[in-house]
Amino acid sequence: MIRFVTGNENKVTEVSEHLDVPVEQFDYDYVEIQADDITSVARAGAAESYDAIGDGDAVIVEDSGLFVHALGGFPGPYSAYVEETIGVEAVARLTADHPDRTAHFESVVAYADGNRIKTFSGRVDGLIVPPRGDGGFGYDPIFEVDGQTLAERTTEEKNELSHRGQAVERFAQWYRTQS
Ligand code: ITT
What we know:
- This protein has helices spanning 9-18, 38-53, 79-85, 88-95, 155-161, 163-176; strands at 2-5, 23-26, 59-68, 102-112, 117-128, 143-145, 148-149.
- The longest helix is centred in the N-terminal third of the chain and has 16 residues, at 38-53.
- A 7-stranded mixed sheet has the order 2-1-3-4-5-6-7.
- The protein has one domain (2-176): Maf protein (Alpha-Beta Complex).
- By secondary structure, it is an alpha/beta fold.
- The chain is built from 6 helices and 7 strands, in the order βαβαβααββββαα.
- Inosine 5'-triphosphate is lined by residues 6-8, 11, 32, 62-66, 79-80, 83, 136-140, 150, 162, 164.
- Residues 6-8, 11, 32, 62-66, 79-80, 83, 136-140, 150, 162, 164 line the site of inosine 5'-triphosphate.
């Protein structure tokens, strides 16, 4: 059993489909520190969650963000805040007339067990487009890879190429060597 500290059920679905161990969602709202890189955010979140829950069981957290190249990497670590405030369609409109519509998603899974914190990252590159598709969550409808947005793919298809799929796969490979 892996304890995944997150308030985002979509993340739990994706991670559960990817791992061959059961995943338990733990809804603890850790502080997301202000940092330019999501690795620091994930590390701090895993350490805080492990200490706050306090029963000695290992935890993972996952932090992710969308980095739009024409906008200097915005919204990056602030992706959740920007989604909540202006919404994903507004982010697509910001680059609609820009010659460079490239962007990438990053994901970092951080594992903490009291002795150590380990991080595993993933990245997928794509293009910002007007929204298409009704699968996935968050920025999926405006992020296109190989002609399809992530919202036009099934969870399994998304996991095969996504930032989170890669980070979780790297975590899973390491985790299997631990028991
Ligand atoms: P936590 O409780 O795990 O923090 P969260 O939804 O707040 O859940 P983050 O802080 O990692 O997650 O914020 C990530 C933001 O990027 C948020 O707006 C997501 O909707 C978006 N995002 C992350 N991964 C995504 C993906 O695979 N597809 C689309 N949007 C994604």
